[in-house]
């Protein structure tokens, strides 16, 4: 009980026995698999930094719920300061691991549930908020990591869940009994599901009459019977299994598809069941928080990209080239505008009836739209600065063999004073930063597709006030 050290976090995962498949094989020990371990290490950094004198004051705070020190990744925000701290810890972690650290999504689910369960109870006199608070106490007391089981596989996108030919395309209740519910379906792109103790399931879209069985929110351990995690491929995934040419030596990201094969969920872990009209609120709250989270972690990732760009300029002898300095500045300003938008979304936050603070959704979504375009622009600038070996650098294994290794070291050399091995390492890191699909594609689709961000901006912006402002200037009367 209490704050976990990184070692205790990893041991706690070792004690779990999830059903996992990867690349055609059943995985018995998640923490000992190098591919999965790189993801666990990234989440582990949220525990590791909380242990340090330097970062503990930012990451650890007292919970108003259990009145004990907790890691902020288990703390729904109850002030503007908490909202701001979310962005700061995400930037810190993004800079530290240079990829997704996979713990913000769980916090975003906890934050959304802390608002919406209260709102559902206010209308339906249901017991969801009380149940959620008990779950939250468990998460905080044990310093757990949760993942976000939001994205259903969705089948035919033009049809509502209940209209699908196969009724299991969105996670749904197939049985209700005195003890709980039985659920079936699958959630896609489950970042860090095996680095998480708990899987939190929320609906993925607005629902309407007829979709009652799909209006679900619940939380279960990642090794609950019937849960099957199938780890997805991503572009550089065999590097960890090879133990060679890693780029980022310690950290990576993986995203399983998680199948719910008639999984039992006890009532005390059910936080919404049938209240279709609240699905939209659940989705909107979660996505807005998650889009704000991205502004923190992705600006942190750009910090690493800028560092790699400047180092490569030193190694290549191009550090004085004016056009490359300009490109590095272009990268920095992208990081800062993302960060600024997410901070602004926090400072404009407001208290909800449950006591949780919610961010400004327009600013959070503006940040995410910006990220969708500008992260790839930052990557393009980094590749431009670094040079073509980002694409096709010979392997460390070739550098190690006598026949060709010395020749490669001769010809891969840049500036004379820089060891060739360092230049090779930096190229590998840049390859990982810009070409790891599990990480880079989340810049576009993570937290919903770019159109979802636009629709939110349209819906949440005060468009009438903008029209009125223009009309007043032009001398047209507003109606
Ligand atoms: C690397 C990565 C990590 C992720 N991590 C997580 C996670 O941890 N947890 C989680 O729950 N989710 C996660 N996601 C899922 C992410 O939220 C979804 O990918 C995103 O919401 C898009 O959904 P989709 O992939 O099913 O694409 P689709 O919904 O099929 O979208 C494809 C395109 O079609 C458009 N479209 C879809 N339906 C319609 C329609 N009815 N009308 C008009 N246009 C439509 C979309 O706007 C988009 O442009 C992750 C995704 C990625 C790529």
TrEMBL record:
Residue span(s) of domain HpaB/PvcC/4-BUDH C-terminal: 281-475
GO molecular function per UniProt: lyase activity; oxidoreductase activity, acting on the CH-CH group of donors; vinylacetyl-CoA delta-isomerase activity
Database matches in Pfam families: HpaB, HpaB_N
Keywords: FAD, Flavoprotein, Isomerase, Lyase, Oxidoreductase
Coiled coil: none
Chain ranges of the HpaB/PvcC/4-BUDH N-terminal domain: 5-272
Species annotation: Syntrophobacter fumaroxidans (strain DSM 10017 / MPOB)
Name of the protein in its database record: 4-hydroxybutyryl-CoA dehydratase / vinylacetyl-CoA delta-isomerase
Lyase as UniProt keyword: yes
Residues holding FAD: 191
InterPro entries: Acyl-CoA_Oxase/DH_mid-dom_sf (IPR046373), AcylCo_DH-like_C (IPR036250), AcylCoA_DH/oxidase_NM_dom_sf (IPR009100), HpaB/PvcC/4-BUDH (IPR004925), HpaB/PvcC/4-BUDH_C (IPR024719), HpaB/PvcC/4-BUDH_N (IPR024674)
EC number of this enzyme: 4.2.1.-, 5.3.3.3
Superkingdom of source: Bacteria
